[in-house]
Amino acid sequence: MINNLWIITGAVFIAALLAAKAIFGLITRFRQTQQLENRRLAESKRIQKPMSVSNGLRRERGLADLDTPFLRPIFDLLTQSGLRLDRYVLLSAIFMLSFLLWLVLGFFTDYSVISFLAAVLLALVLAYFFFVVARQRRIARFAEQIPDAIDVLGRGVRVGYPLPVALRLVAREMPDPIGKEFGLTADEISFGQEVKTAIDNLYRRVGQEDLQFLVVAINVQNQTGGNLAEILSRLSHLVRTRAKLHLKIQALSAEGRMSAKFLSLMPFILFAIVSLVSPAYFNEVRHHPLVVPAL
């Protein structure tokens, strides 16, 4: 009877996990199709005031200036994820995840305060890694677009456009996420922000490494002068070369990374299999106070 209960519980868990993965895949594909469009241009057609468009795009990502050194890295992570944030929805999701994890941990140990605190901590860690993955995916899309964006920016400067107009040209020609970010930078300069501050804000909102080269090039040219079009042309070639090298490294290290993931998951897989085959195997240590921290 106990074996059948464990098998049913495991089957239900696996079915729920597969259903969640399927739903997440559908949401991801929907978001990818939506991100092919430039939301800033769509909002500009709907709202005629550029200031309202810029402020609306900032509010939906929770953009604000935080001077607290402890909270600023967390805020930058949320900003660079590019997700539309609602603090109440976020807190509700973390609370529900904590409750579900508490039910799971309590099934293996006991429903105590320690297991609840462990569930809350685990929920916060999972939420953090969710935003880290979202940030990495957005930065990867940004990295694919930045060489073409630099080419468009360089051609605009070469034909005589001032930098804000060239940035706006990139915002009009390129899809999200790079189109929206360059558009916000162009709006900041148009509304009176210094070029250096606006470009630094662009890097802070995105956090992509290659973008730092563009920030330095524009800031140095703005202060000392020089042929910005030629600098951008060489920078585009440099970024493309770095991207090719990065892809080559990923291809060469794919087998090792896959082995590392498999070996990391193997203890949890073995624990689940042994618990299903022999539910009494872990009875002697199941109620030990170190079980929950170890898990």
Task: Describe the structure in your own words.
The chain starts with a helix and ends with a helix. Helix 6 crosses helix 7 (163-173), helix 7 (163-173) runs antiparallel to helix 8 and helix 9 runs antiparallel to helix 10 (211-224). The chain is mostly helical and 295 residues long. The mean pLDDT is 79. It has helices at 2-35, 39-46, 50-60, 72-81, 87-108, 113-158, 163-173, 178-190, 195-206, 211-224, 228-252, 254-277, 283-286, 291-294. It is built from 14 helices and no strands. The chain is elongated. The longest helix is centred in the middle third of the chain and has 46 residues, at 113-158.
Question: Layout of SSEs?
Answer:
Elements: H1 2-35, H2 39-46, H3 50-60, H4 72-81, H5 87-108, H6 113-158, H7 163-173, H8 178-190, H9 195-206, H10 211-224, H11 228-252, H12 254-277, H13 283-286, H14 291-294
